[in-house]
Amino acid sequence: MVILLSDPRVLAVPVREAGVPLVRLGAEFGPARARVRADLAERLGWARAALPAGVFPRVVEGHREVARQRQIIEMYEAQVRSARPAVDEAGLHHLVSRFVAPVEVAPHVAGAAVDLTLSGPDGDLDMGTPIDATPEESDGACYFAAQNISPQARANRMLLSRVLGGAGLVNYPTEWWHWSYGDRYWALMTGAPASLHGPVAA
Q1: 45, 96 contact by CB (below 8 A)
Q2: What is the per-residue pLDDT for 83?
């Protein structure tokens, strides 16, 4: 069963802010030079070291300001309303939050999450969909465990899972590219008593 970020169990996880600073990722993680919590950056380094020679994690986004998170929610709400004009407010919240986290539990706002793919000498590896492909756009292929992707894309996702999971990160299952450490969702999925990181300003 997929647990969404809107699940009350996620919001019920206490936040015990560890005070870990935001740091900027180095160029070895791609040109975005995203900001993330220092403990997440360390774990991304472990994951990078575990990848085959010539393959590296290309991070597209890390920390996100609250205003940007709200903007993304509003844009996706408009897309969902257009696709499902009869949806009520409760249904809209459920559909939106399977893909975009509510602000109060958003891992990106805490600097505790990255959106990333795997890249090699010839560019990004086949992961089945582009990063940020919505469920509507991809016919659900954005879900990590989607079956409507190629065997090569499945193998690449499993490689991503092996190295990131081995470094202590957890995946948000509706987005193959989204991995986090230290946020409320991570705490719920790993059984940690509290999250390490709450919302933080850059």
Answers
A1: no
A2: 83
